[in-house]
Every structure is written in C-alpha cells, then in structure tokens.
Structure prediction request, 252 residues.
Amino acid sequence: MSKPEKLIVDGKRLDGRGPFDMRPIKFTAGVLKRADGSCYLEFGGNKVMAAVYGPREVHPRHMQNASRAIVRYRYNMASFSVEERKRPGPDRRSIEISKVSREALEGVVMEELYPRSAIDVFVEILQADAGSRVAGINAASVALADAGIPMKCLVSAVAVGKIDGEVVLDLNKDEDNYGSADLPIAMNQFGEITLCQMDGHLTEEEFGRALDMAVDGCKKIHELQKQALIEKYGQDITPDVAQPIEGGETNE
Ligand code: CDP
Prediction:
C-alpha cells in the first residue's frame, strides 16, 4: 500500500479499529506431535508456530551451565512470510529478535531446576504483518507451558505505536510502515516488563500512555493464553506462583 493521506479517519484506524483495539488473536496449544510443547498463533495477519524441546542435554557440551538450564530461542522468518521474499537464514534482525525474545522469557522459566540442560524454543514466522516478535513471544510462552516446563508465570507481549500523532495499540503493517513510533513490550502477569524496545519518538507523557495500553493489551492476551491451555488440558494449567514477584498481585 502506498502512503495513505491519513491513518486515522473519524477516530477509526484504516482497518476499522479504535486506538485501544487489538487485531483478532487465536492461540492453539499443542499442535506439533514431535515437539515437547507447541503453539500456533494467529495475531492479526501474523501466523506463527512455536515449538519447544527440552529440558534436554546441551550440545555442544561446553555451553552447559552446572547450576541451571540454558534457554535458547530462535526466531526465524520464512522466505514466503513477507511481501518481498526474505533471504533464508539468520540475519542481523533475526539474531537481535532471538536475543531479546530469549531475555523476555528466561526470567520466568525456573532454570535452576534443570542444571546442565537446555530448553530450546523455535519460533517460525509463517506470515508477518508487523508485531511478529511479540506474536512469537506470546506463542513461545504457551508452548513452554504446553511442554510442562516449570515457569513462574506466562509472558504476554504486544506492540504500541504512534500514528497520525495518536498513541494506538497493536500496529498493523501499514501503520508500522507509515507511523512515527513502534514500541514492542512484553510483561509477565505481575506487570513486570521483560522486553521494551522503541523505534521512533514518544514524549514522556505518550510513553506513559503507551505503557498503560500495553498493560491492558497484555492482560487480554494473558486471558487468551490461559484459555488455549484450558482447551488443550481441560483444566487451568497456567503457571504461576503463590508468592507474587516483587509486590505484584497473584492471580488467585
Ligand atoms: O515484526 P516486528 O514488528 O516485530 O519487527 P519489525 O522489524 O518492526 O518488522 C515489522 C514488519 O516488517 C514485519 O512484521 C514484517 O511484516 C515486515 N518485514 C518485511 O516485510 N521484511 C523483512 N525482511 C522484515 C520485516
């Protein structure tokens, strides 16, 4: 799409959403037979598969940690996932996204329970439509729970951005292309932020509003993640701990 004159017309975005609306989201837990845990997610136009293997022995062995498990995360964009064919294989962008996504998740995984082992997370972007890194984190979080990996809680993620001078939740591709800021955020269910990146500029006041929107979006996503696990297991297996982390609220 060429640059539209306006991205917000009469208070509505070009796809009909209001500023606080997210695109449709659908999680399906446990879709891959050979993975220990998996999740397929459609988040707007993003189609994402996450597969988790482990805890398993670390190869190469020199990467082992004697006191805890290591989490490895590979974000990969299929060549056919974007408009202009993406060259297969890792690039700077996917290496960066893999690193920040791993950091967004590793704090909630109880790594100390599995010394010398690895928990491998593979995220395949089958179709991308902006916000693919946050979609990947959402799917990976459900896949980790599906694999039975002990976690303190789930992680939920969403991007907030600025278009036509307004702060809006969950940018789509056109909004990402022609907007002036993009802020992917991940948090656990206690509201602790585990990923916060920013492209573009926001004032301090706008940043505060963006954060509030992200908290609201992540709460809704958390509910959908929980539902996906209930659908698969027939009961609530959402990981959490009785004790809140750093004075947050428990979800009991
Ligand atoms: O996907 P996310 O918003 O996390 O990351 P980004 O680097 O801000 O990319 C935004 C969007 O640009 C992606 O979701 C894709 O739709 C698109 N993109 C692309 O068309 N070709 C690439 N090589 C990389 C991204």
